[in-house]
Design a protein that fits this description.
The protein has 248 residues and is of the alpha/beta class. The chain is built from seven helices and nine strands, in the order E-H-E-H-E-E-E-E-H-H-E-H-E-E-H-H. The strands form two sheets. Strands 2-1-3-9-4 form a five-stranded mixed beta sheet. Strand 1 (3-9), helix 1 (15-24) and strand 2 (29-35) form a beta-alpha-beta unit. Helix 1 packs across helix 6 (170-179). The longest helix has 43 residues, at 190-232. The N and C termini lie far apart (93 Å).
Length: 248
């Protein structure tokens, strides 16, 4: 059985794409998991995943070893405890105001000590605020924590990455096509493109064979005409072979 391995960064929700892939390719084993600890791009370098949904700021992590296609942008929010000053802003808070709050650093909360979940508990206590992409705030939402958009904040980009040296990318191209919204019949899908190319090859072969048959038939007809002319002692196309007699 063929297998496709997909890892995704915290906050990315690829469920709908995976469901569509399973519907189209039920015989392919799709292994998918959320990667919370460590650099997700390392999974590609170590051949532990065929593709990853990566989150990044600034320039794309695309390089000679991997391809990256950007998919969508995430806005930055600030998470704070209820009754915190941040709650008095309706929807967004200027970045300079947020900068004045005591900040929590996620680097101090690796997965072995509870990760983002524990960090949110600290936020709920009112001790510090946490700036994260909106998707992460939603994933770890709590009743005692509010979130507001950061005006002038730093957005993050979510993209899909895979190894440049990957030899067989047919299944992955199908998955990427689904992620990018292509239908099952889209000519840009690898399977459809391969089917069209195969059909074209079959059609071209049929045309070539028909041409050969036509040429062979014409050649046989020409040879038959020559043979008949020789047997009649005249030129092709003139029955009897006689050149006629001069009139007296």
């Amino acid at each position: 059985m063929q297998t496709l391995r997909i890892a995704y960064a915290t906050g990315v929700t690829p469920g709908k794409w995976m469901d569509r892939f399973k519907e189209r390719y039920p015989k392919v084993e799709l292994q998918a998991w959320r990667h919370d600890d460590g650099e997700i791009l390392d999974l590609l370098a170590e051949d532990r995943a065929d593709a990853v949904f990566v989150r990044y700021r600034g320039e794309s992590p695309k390089d000679q070893t991997r391809h990256v296609i950007p998919l969508y942008e995430e806005l930055e929010v600030v998470c704070a405890a209820k009754d915190h000053e941040a709650e008095y802003y309706d929807e967004s808070i200027p970045a300079e105001v947020v900068a004045g709050f005591a900040q929590l650093d996620l680097a101090d909360y690796p997965e072995e000590v509870g990760g983002i979940g524990v960090a949110m508990e600290v936020v709920a206590s009112g001790a510090q605020v946490l700036r994260v992409p909106q998707s992460i705030a939603r994933l770890f939402a709590r009743k005692d924590v509010i979130s507001r958009f950061v005006e002038g904040g730093t957005p993050t980009q979510v993209g899909i990455a895979w190894p440049a040296a990957m030899e067989d990318t047919a299944l992955l191209e199908e998955f990427i096509g689904i992620v990018r919204g292509r239908s099952a019949n889209s000519s840009r899908q690898a399977s459809v493109r391969n089917h069209e190319q195969k059909a074209k090859r079959v059609n071209d072969k049929a045309k070539f064979e028909a041409k050969l048959k036509s040429q062979a038939a014409a050649k046989r007809q020409k040879e038959l005409a020559k043979k008949q002319a020789r047997s009649n002692g005249g030129k092709p196309g003139k029955p009897g072979g006689s050149k006629g007699r001069k009139k007296r």
